[in-house]
Amino acid sequence: MSRDAAMSPFTKAVYEGFSASPKFLPSWMFYDDRGDQLFRQIMAMPEYYLTDCEKEIFESQGSSIGEFVAGVSGQLEIVEPGAGDGAKTEILLEKWSSQGCQLKYVPIDISPHVLNLLKDRLSHSLPKIDVRPLALSFEQAFEKLHQTGSKRLFLFLGSNIGNMPMEKSIEFLRKIRNMMKEEDLLLVGFDLKKDPEIILSAYDDPHGITAAFNLNLLRRINRELGADFKVENFSHYASYDPVSGQARSYLISKKQQMVYISELGRSFAFDQWEPIHTEISAKFSTGEINRIATQSGFQILMYFEDKRAYYRNVILGPKLKQDSSV
Q1: How far apart are alpha carbons 160 and 165 in whole angstroms?
Q2: How far apart are CA 318 and CA 180, in angstroms?
Q3: Which of 139, 56, 45 is nearest to 92 (CA)?
Q4: Is the C or the N end of the chain the one with fewer CB within 10 Å?
Q5: Domains of the chain by start residue, with CATH
Q6: In what order do the strands lie in the sheet with 311-318?
Q7: Distance between CA 238 and CA 249 in Å, rounded?
Q8: What is the largest CA-CA distance in the chain?
Q9: Per-residue pLDDT at 148
Q10: pLDDT (tens digit, 9 = 90+) per residue, 15-54?
Q11: Are 73 and 100 in contact (CB under 8 A)?
């Protein structure tokens, strides 16, 4: 067995990211127990407008969304990659359940901890809903999902679609499209382009919570892989490019240093001011949303926006072959 094959996904990601130039760490690594707690704090910040915008849409227009997606039968299987704590989804589930919909909910997340909290909460607040969590990566979960007789709604909320480059987002949505029946639907959250200062403050807040969230990556590597990162030797840095629409987060090495990782049996060198890229969060124009939908095999059926037009939830349906004039 090769060394790579023997590594856990977490260990392999650290090895590959620190061996690359420039260095990087994938954003799914944020979400250990402490990372989950910090991200919940981020979502509660006034600067992090994304949560409030999507919540506003669901509270004010959730019933209309439900009428559209559930149709006449009122039976719906909801599949949600990147479900997180499911707080916003719970708003939809409560509204649709109260409208008489028969719901099965399949939340998917890399964090078993957050899924356990979600299932426990829903078992008390919405006991009639059949909740079947999958603590897997998207790729692993997609291998386990099979077409069923029920109409399915795929959810991809929180502007998670922005956490990958454009071509990767199209590739990801194509994978969902390939699993869908003609009557299935997809609801995607898109963070819209807006005042760059509003966007930047969401990723570099004055409370230091986003910085703590980013730096927790190093603490996790210390704990799980036996590394000797001195966290105080790194800082959080965020940037936003209004042309590409990409907000990016980095960890910056404040001094030249060597870090030993016991699990890998080797040290990694960090130059002074060398960045480690940890996250991308893209913002979208209407034209870019149309391009993503078309190139991934969908058609836009309906969309809903918050009152400030900061954020858009878009309902996509499979583009039928006779409509495929791309």
Answers
A1: 11
A2: 7
A3: 56
A4: N
A5: 3-30+197-282 (no CATH), 49-194+286-321 (3.40.50.150)
A6: 130-131, 102-108, 75-81, 152-156, 185-191, 311-318, 298-305
A7: 4
A8: 64
A9: 66
A10: 999 999 999 999 999 989 899 899 999 999 999 999 999 9
A11: no
Q: State whether the Cα torsion 316-126-109-46 is positive or negative.
A: positive
Residue 223 to residue 58: CA distance in whole angstroms:
38
Q: What pLDDT sits at residue 70?
A: 87
DSSP string, 151-216: -EEEEE-TTGGGGS-HHHHHHHHHHHHHH--TT-EEEEEEEBP--HHHHHHHHS-TTSHHHHHHHH
Q: In three state form, how does the secondary structure of 99-159 look?
A: CCCEEEEEEECCCHHHHHHHHHHHHHHCCCCEECCECCCHHHHHHHCCCCCCCEEEEECCC
Q: Given this model, what pLDDT does residue 147 score?
A: 62
Collapsing DSSP to helix, strand or coil, 228 comes out as coil
The answer to whether the beta carbons of residues 251 and 275 sit under 8 Å apart is yes
Using an 8 Å Cβ cutoff, are 85 and 118 in contact? yes
Residues of the chain predicted below pLDDT 70 = 1-5, 72-73, 146-148, 321-326
> What pLDDT sits at residue 235?
98
Task: State yes or no: cis peptide before 206, omega within 30 of 0.
Answer: no
Rounded Cα distance between 153 and 163, Å, is: 21
Cα distance between residue 81 and residue 136, in whole Å = 9
The Cα–Cα gap between 154 and 245 comes to: 25
User: Each residue of 139-168: pLDDT tens digit?
Assistant: 788 777 766 678 999 999 999 999 998 999
Tokens 């291998």 label which residue?
143
